[in-house]
Write a structure and sequence with these properties.
131 residues, alpha+beta, 60s Ribosomal Protein L30, Chain: A, 6-stranded mixed β-sheet, two-stranded antiparallel ribbon, 2 helices, 8 strands
């Protein structure tokens, strides 16, 4: 088994020894839960805007890993207000076409900060989209 940590200049790295944003294990990329936060600032005032930022981060990490959004096979979306899920799916349609990845949507009572409304993690089989 080979494990490779992926770093993208477009995505801030977490503090040392906390977690990795993205690891590739034998051709499968595991992207940690991403939010629209950069430092102390959260981009976007609603689920749509935040999801667009998050999907952009996931895209950047996958590209740094040598993959693409078309390689994503599974996403898990955490929201603080499930009634606003259509906003997340609207943003998702801007990043995925064709066969959408398997998806799970979970409402949670809170995320890392009150202004964070969405968190998304992804699993991608690198090279899947090239078939």
């Amino acid at each position: 088994m080979t494990i490779r940590r992926v770093i993208s200049p477009a995505v801030a790295e977490p503090p040392p020894e906390r977690w990795s944003n993205c690891l590739v294990v034998d051709g499968v990329a595991y992207v940690s839960g991403m939010t629209a936060r950069s430092g102390t600032t959260v981009s976007g005032n609603d689920e749509y805007e935040q999801a667009k930022v998050i999907f952009g981060k996931i895209k950047s990490l996958l590209e740094a890993a040598g993959g693409a959004m078309s390689d994503v096979v599974k996403i898990t979306v955490f929201v603080t207000e499930i009634a606003n899920n259509t906003k997340v799916w609207a943003a998702r349609r801007e990043f995925f076409t064709g066969d959408f990845p398997a998806s799970t949507l979970v409402e949670v009572s809170a995320l890392a900060a009150p202004e964070i409304l969405v968190e998304i993690e992804a699993v991608a089989h690198l090279g899947k989209g090239k078939r």
